Amino acid sequence: MLKKKKDKKFLKTMEPYLWLLPAFILFGAFTFYPFIETIFKSFFIVDSFGNVNRFVGLENYMYILSDEKFVQAIFNTVWFVLLTVPISKVLGFLLALLANKKRKTSIFYETSFAIPMAMASSVTAMIFQLLYVPSLGFINGFFGIDVQWLTDPKVALIAIAIIQIWLSTGYAFIFMLSAVRSVPDDLIESADLEGATPFRKLISIYLPITSPTMFYLIITDLAYSMMMMGLVNILTDGGPFGATQTIMQYVYKQLSATGNYTNANPAAIIAFVMTFIVTMLGFAWEKKGVHYQ
Questions:
Q1: What CATH number corresponds to the domain at position 176?
Q2: pTM score, two decimals?
Q3: Domain assignment of residue 236, yes or no
Q4: Using one digit for the tens of pLDDT, what is the confidence trace for 201-256?
Q5: Where would you tag: which of 81, 90, 244, 282 has the fewest CB atoms within 10 A of its CB?
């Protein structure tokens, strides 16, 4: 009898882990094992077939950190993150404030604000490629300007960032609209009675209450933007003159062009470390800037 009780207690204790076991197996096989293998191989000379040849320690890391193309890729990635993450979140928040009150026409502008979320990045890239055409493109023609959007090294990364901002804003809008509409009406009414300006309500009510949602959006978009590669591959292939090459695009080209695992492995680990540091900075901000009800 006592043994049966112990067995039941043991099964009850293990039940949550058994439910999670399939996920652990999948993560272990397709995420953790490849990651550990990449770390291991980053300290070795690896041939084009992925076979380990010779241990070199940190020489691989020193080599790629002295590679001007990789250093530029790091700068491009950081600049891309700084351009896209804050702007898309601010725009999503402002659009959510505009759509806060439900009206008869709400369904139309809410849908139009959220449409970018349903667009594939490849399709969006092709649309913007047509808009960016210098001679016949809509943007240059409408504004009467002559900008080489994808061939000017000074402008190309900004042009790609604009596309990412457009894509991310719709996603941010959906989440922020729900957060903004969850703000209690009595708080807004009390603020109105006390004569609070719209800016004061924004700073003292809307931002603190919606900060958990904003934190989630920023953290997830930081990781995604650090790993961005698709738009670059479609539109510029890292050009012109490496002006749009990101870290992950550098890794991709090392593997696809020459099968250079010796450079690709440490570059991928450096990308992970940078993403980890940026994410930790975000969690450090959470302690002071995020208010949970």
A1: 1.10.3720.10
A2: 0.88
A3: yes
A4: 888 889 889 999 999 999 999 988 999 999 999 999 998 999 999 999 999 998 88
A5: 90
